Amino acid sequence: MANTSDVETLNSFLRGEISAVETYRQAIGHVSDERIRSQLEDCLHDHEHRVEAIRERVEKLGGKPAEGSGIWGTFAKLVQGGADLLGEKTAIQALEEGEDHGLADYQRDMDKTHGEARRFVRMELLPSQKRTHERLSRLKKTLH
């Protein structure tokens, strides 16, 4: 029996993570510096891992995992599209804004989950998102 509230909240996180994956893939395709590309690929893999973990958790709760990024994916494409025209530094800045948004989503909505789902968000998703956010922030600082 699915806890509808937990499934909805986790699916919201899932759409954000799918959006992040889409945005990183797009950005990596426009980055020529191998060091920067490698760091971005590490962040991409972090997001891909969270996509899989959230999908598994939603299924475990008896829910149906979200399949796309929804409106956030459209927004991410617009932001990244503008960044593509302006270069790598702007692309990194757009990605960092996405990381800020993702971190804020986890922190704001974590308490909408209950029991095991809340533990999953607090102990796995949030710390993982913080590490990805830090990695990208460090990368951005090396570009200045």
TrEMBL record:
Top-rank taxon: Bacteria
Record domain DUF2383: where: 7-108
Protein name (Swiss-Prot/TrEMBL): Uncharacterized protein (TIGR02284 family)
InterPro entries found in the cross-reference section: DUF2383, Ferritin-like, Ferritin-like_SF
Listed transmembrane segments: none
Source organism per UniProt: Archangium gephyra
Pfam families membership: DUF2383
Gene3D superfamilies reported for this sequence: 1.20.1260.10
